[in-house]
Structures are given as structure tokens and as C-alpha cells.
Amino acid sequence: MAAGKYAKKEIFDEPLDTIRTQSAIPSRATRQLPALQTQQLEEEDFTEYEEFEEEDAEPEDDEPSAFQQSVSENFSKVRAVFIPPKPLRYTPSATPTPVSLYKPHKPFKPAKVVNSVVVHSLEQHKPWLYRFSIVAFVVVISLGVLLSAAITQRPNGAQLVSLPGFGKVYDVQVGGSLANQVQKTNGPIAITAPINTNAPYSVVGKPSVNAAFINSVLSAYSSPAVGKGQALYDMGVKYGIDPAFALAFFQHESSFGKSGEANTTLSLGNSRCVPDADCVNTSGQPCQANQSCYASFPTWEAGFEAWYKLIRNLYVAIWHLTTVDQIIPKYAPNADHNDEAGYIAALKRELTAWRAGNIYS
After folding, report:
1. What DSSP element (H or E) covers 294?
2. What is the C-alpha separation between 8 and 17, in angstroms, rounded?
3. Which H or E run contains 293?
4. Model pTM above 0.85
5. From 30, 54, 61, 173, which residue has the greatest number of CB atoms within 10 Å?
6. Which residues contact 329 (CB under 8 A, 6 or more apart)?
7. Contacts of 274 by beta carbon, 8 Å cutoff, 6+ apart
8. Which residue has the higher pLDDT, 224 or 46?
């Protein structure tokens, strides 16, 4: 027979549901706190709150203890803080307020935004103004360069020719104020300074072609001045200018008198108006204001001599220019819509061919 904890214990025959267990927690001698009721809104008015009603606790015989009273007071304070009071109902007054007592409603004024950074009115145009300023500066500089080049190509400053009936005309070829000194002579004038007559393509010198060859060239090109080769040659000898240069200028300026104004004016070099010759327009009529006018001569011989005077007495004797490279920038500058380099190259090509005995260059 087992002893101790292994000893057989007595088994109760009573049903389990009749066994009364003893609670481990002793019963309290306090009262149960009253339950709180939730706040509800009335169905007919959702904008108003109903007052909370506190359900009375079950009546008990015992008086509330000091602890219960303290809890109740603290709960009332908490509810006053977190539960809003019941909103007031609008009750119309028996005596309405006079209209004069109502204060007018002030109109709404939006808040003014003050920008601390004041932007200049031209700031928004700064990108394109910057580019425009650069372009304008470049244009002004370019115009200044072009004007300076044009002025420097005019010898002895601005040269003006007096023409009867209308003011002054700017002229590159005839020497301006020197035109009278150059043209109103019977032959070559004295050269005031030493010149180089041995430079390549110098106009000063003995003839490099004869009169017969000049006539052959004029005839080959069907020039209206055909047969005038001897006059062109003799005047070259008189003024000390190689007549081959006169023939080359004649070809380049008017295709030996077939084109331009030379067919009417009988001018070897299409010269502008000079004091001792008639001044006509492109129609052969007397020159009028604001017209392009040229010197007109009665014969080819007179036109030949006017060109020799211009080259010998102005370009060589006064300006000391002897070669085609020196003469052309004054005689036909780029500023007057000419091609200086092309002009010089054409003269040299023709002179080289004729001096070699070839009519066609």
C-alpha cells in the first residue's frame, strides 16, 4: 500500500457541477461604478447635440464611499473638458433690431504680396537687347571701316568738280579740283619728283606696239574707232605713255568703244565730266541734277588725248603713280563698285599677249 504523495486519495462521488470552487480573488467590498452613456444626436436636427444623461446607479443600501465620490468628481471634470456643451438655439426676438444699428459688411481685401526684389522693366528684354547691341556695334564698325577705305582711296582728300547748273560732283578719275590743271594744257606737264620707269607694267616708257598692230586689234574686235591706231600711237609718244596701256584701258572700259557710254561720248576711258568737254547723261543729253554723267568729245582723237592728259599729268606727274597696280586703285576703286584685282589682272593679261604679237589674249 503506497504512502505519502502516492497514497490513494479519496474520490468524491458528487457530480462536478455541484462542487463549489473557491475563488482565488476575494470579493471586494466596493460598489460598482455607474455606466456611462454615449452621446447621441437627434434624428430631426443633426446640428445640435443632446445633453448626456447619466443613468442612475442601482439603488443600494450602502452610502457611496469617499473613493467613489472622488472618482465621480474627477470624471465630471474630464467630461467637461472633452465633451462640447450643447449649442444654443436661435430664439427670434419679439422686437427686431432697427436697420440703422446694423454695421455694413467690410469688403474682402486680398492680402498684398510684397516682392522684396524689384526687377527693372528692361530686365525681361535683356537677352535680345544683348544680341541686338552686339550686332549694332559690329554694323557700325563695319560701316566705319568701309567709309575709311573709301576716303583713303580718294587722293588729296575729297575731290569735287564744278559743273554748270548744279553744285558739285564727286569724281575719282578726273582729279576733282585738279581737273583744270590737268586738262587745260597743250601737252605733258613737268614731273615734280623722281619716278621709277623700269617697274613691271609701268605706263611710262616707249611704245611696245606699233600703229599697225593697234589697227589690227581694233579691226579684229570690230571697234567703231578702227583706223585710229596711228592717232592713238602718236599721242602716246607725245605724252610719254606706252600706247599699249591706252589700248588695254580702251578694251576693258568699253570693248574698244562698242559698249557703255563710249559709243556716244567717244571717250577712251569712259571718263566723268571734265572742265573742257561737254557733260552728258547716259542718253547723250545735257546732264541734269542727280544724273550719272560723262565727258563727251567731238572726235575719237579728242577722247584719246583727254585720257593721256589724265594719266600723264595727274596720275604720273602729280600723284607719282606709274604702274597699273598703283593706278587702278585710284582710277577704278572698289568703293565705286569696281573689281580692282580683276581689272589689274585683265590689263596685265592683254599687255602680255600684245607685246608677244598676239591679238587675242
Report:
1. strand 293-296
2. 24
3. strand 293-296
4. no
5. 173
6. 153, 340
7. 161, 174, 179, 183, 295, 306
8. 224
